[in-house]
TrEMBL record, chain A:
Region (Disordered): 499-526
Designated name of the protein: Heme ABC transporter ATP-binding protein
PROSITE patterns hit by this protein: ABC_TRANSPORTER_1, ABC_TRANSPORTER_2
Record has Transcription regulation as a keyword: no
Topology in the lipid bilayer: Peripheral membrane protein
Compartment annotation: Cell membrane
Organism of origin: Haloferax profundi
Ranges of compositional bias, category Low complexity: 511-526
Domain ABC transporter: 5-242, 259-503
TrEMBL record, chain B:
Membrane topology summary: Multi-pass membrane protein
PANTHER family recorded: ABC TRANSPORTER, PERMEASE PROTEIN, GUANOSINE ABC TRANSPORTER PERMEASE PROTEIN NUPP
Cellular compartments per GO CC: plasma membrane
Localization per Swiss-Prot or TrEMBL: Cell membrane
Source species taxonomy: Archaea, Methanobacteriati, Methanobacteriota, Stenosarchaea group, Halobacteria
Pfam families in UniProt: BPD_transp_2
InterPro entries (UniProt xref): ABC_transp_permease
Name of the protein: Ribose ABC transporter permease
Keyword Transferase applies: no
Transmembrane intervals: 23-44, 102-121, 127-145, 152-172, 184-203, 237-256, 286-309, 321-344
Native source species: Haloferax profundi
Keywords tagged on the record: Cell membrane, Membrane, Transmembrane, Transmembrane helix
GO MF terms, alphabetically ordered: transmembrane transporter activity
Amino acid sequence: MATAVHLDGITKRFPGVIANDDVDLSVERGTVHALLGENGAGKTTLMNVLYGLYRPTEGRVVIDDEERRFESPRDAIDAGVGMIHQHFMLVDPMTVTENITLGNEPTKWGNLAVDRDAAREAVVELSDKYGFDVDPDARVEDISVGEQQRVEILKALYRGAEILILDEPTAVLTPQEVEELFEVFEELTEQGKTIIFISHKLGEAMRAADEITVLRDGRNVGTVEADDTTREDLANLMVGREVLLDIEKPPTETGETILSVSDISVDDDRGVRAVDDVSFDVSAGEVFGIAGVDGNGQSELIEALTGLRKPKRGGITFRGEDVTKRSRQHRIDSGMAYIPEDRHERGLVMDFDLVENAILGSQHNPAFESGGRIDWNATRSHAEDIIEKYDVRPPNPEAISESLSGGNQQKFIVGREFERDPALVVASHPTRGVDVGSIEFIHEQLLELRSRGVAVLLVSSKLDEVQGLSDRLGVMYEGEIIDVVDPSNTTEEELGLLMAGEHPDDDDTDVSAADVDSVATGGESQ
Amino acid sequence: MSVGDRARDALARLVDASAAERILISIASLVLAIAVGTVLILVAGRMTTCAPSSAVYYFNVGFCYDPVLVFDRLFLGALGDPLRGGWSPDGQFAITMRETTLLIFTGLSVAMAFRAGIFNIGTQGQMVVGGLAAALGTLWASPFLSGVTGTLVLVPFGILVGAVFGGLYGAIPGLLKAYAEANEVITTIMLNFIATGVTLYLVSDVFKDPNSPANQTVPLPDYAQFPALLFGARQDFSLYALFFGVVTLFALYYVLEHTSFGYDVRTSGIQPEAAEYGGVDAAKTIVSSFALSGALGGVAGALYVTMVIGKFQSGVPAYGFDGITVSILAGNNPLGVGFAALLFGVLKSGTTAVQFATDVPPQLVGVLRGLIILFVAMPEFFRLIGRRLVKPTDQSKTIATDGGESNE
């Protein structure tokens, strides 16, 4: 078999961040290749390099044994690379035929008019060839999401794509549509097309792909044959296990219950149930960890707890008060600190300097505001304190947040949140994208808070982190906390199994067809 | 390096430009606009006919329109000819100042909304509503007072009424956006039509001056109008109003930069997700920003009534729409609005001066004005676009797009 795509040492740097670090990837012609990894692992960046949206900082893109330099997606399309984005790029009021041929319409009368008949014929021919069931005259707004996806695929094929990239193709599909999509994959590869699809769902990668490449922190951590691997292996590869310095965790006395979550259910932005009937308590002086592969409802759960998302059902009690319906501001004021998973979107206002960012969340706090007026002098000294205590570099409160490196941005957020004198710290991936030295520092600070009697809710997909820091560890899978374990008495293998959705008490640990379906569809099947 | 790369680099440089660089860029743009305008005037002057004696000659070629004279009138004429001696505040300069004053308020109205991430096209409607309310309120209150006390009470009262009603009218699209997710561009445009239509009905029927054939209210008594200071009353300009405008510029700057409300507004404007994280109540901020924006538009309407025409009359000039340009020209910075309003005021009043002094058709003067504004506004406009374009592709944002979309 010939190699259709060869990415050789691709490195893509953005200011302060390495999105892809020396990634090699080879895909054989006529195969399905899954690109597996967590959010932020660099999957989409890598595919954007292949599709010509980004130029790699280093490395080579080789298509059909020929090195290519793509200036834009148009070059990639010319080289036979097509990409189907997660959000479809279709014109809703136009017909399937019009959408597929858009920009490349067959013409008549010397390029003066679109030859509609020829266009329709071409589309029918193409969809017959690959056994697609689409009505060429239907309006895109009238057809299902699964059909729209097939229209996108036809669009790429119409433009001569030999290599198809699909970015999280199953995220928007129902279980039946996922199955249909995988049948389409088979049909396409039989006819010699090559497919690369991005996913963070283990089950569907195993189901649909011939080979699976796992990316973590921008690096290729392994390419495996789908038939020779298990879901536990993949889960372990995805979350990884960096060797951390031993975390010294002195025993502490746990106090009263600070946060109590009862039977909470939360929907994601698409209205799909992401968190299903979750309950747990966090006490003062305790670290409660939530482990799990990204995308199993952790983000939605945390947003519901911190007041950024309304839960559909259930209650949240914080320091004895029912805060389910209270505002985000109220929760901040009553002592809930929150390190968000996304520092660029939420944690910092990138255009503000550190002084202005130092009071994000406490702009109405009497310590910095009186009579509606912000005391910028007090704010500045607060920012300077954070910078000094948490070793933020450069130590310049006037630095625009955007100019800081990721690790320093994170240290500043951590400092700001810890200095709130909180009763509860919700830390969501607090060390993601942070250098080793800062990781250690943030861990120490978390344990320091714990010993001072602060309750800590830690969400991380790094197994060693949650295992090392937590006093109790809940494992989240498909929107549910499927077990709460004592991390010191649990092996990594056991955790890996739990994270892959396989409870050790279950008799059936095979990957049955029904199991694959439920994996592929996330929370939708519930 | 491809064209795209170079364009991107240029955009990035523009985004990173310092304040001094931006002022330099603006001045260079102005000079460039004048150069292009000169060519246009010369060409237009060649294509028309005039008596040889009235033509102007450059390099032995006759032109019917003289660019030097045109730009002299457009700028120096608007400023009341400060270089000729015998300068007096009356005349064209007062008109320039009057336009500037009104544009300060409509410009601030738009800028205020912009800073909160809202595109308020409805300043015009808020101005109309504020103007009618100010006229009716003042007319209602004027019989109770007279003389100097009347002026001292009624003028601020009129402004207050204009601000309140403009603010209420501005709150409508705010509420619609905050609680019904209605796009503010659409709603404000529609509300402009509603404001114009309803006020036209009111002043042609319910509140019509029975002694006038025009659709207008009864004129305000003299003591209820803005008192003139230094300038003649004939020019419909009061230095007090300009002073009030300048104070408002600084006040709005202070509110945005030094209050927690301003902090909430700015945070919502540039990074709504971070604002949400920081506990900012998005709905409340949208409504209050819109109300404040509308109130500033309402003040412009009140000033138009109490300072300029002394009554409410249907057909309020498009100061509200000019405010959008003024705000963009100023980069939505309240202090910049002062300068942008002055430039705009000069151009508006200079147009009249050009028409007095030359045969240049008003359409051509309109083109020149448009050129100048286009040239001066473009760098700022590209900066605004560039902030969205350059950053997401070259910065942090990419990290978030990886799979992060599935969480949206």
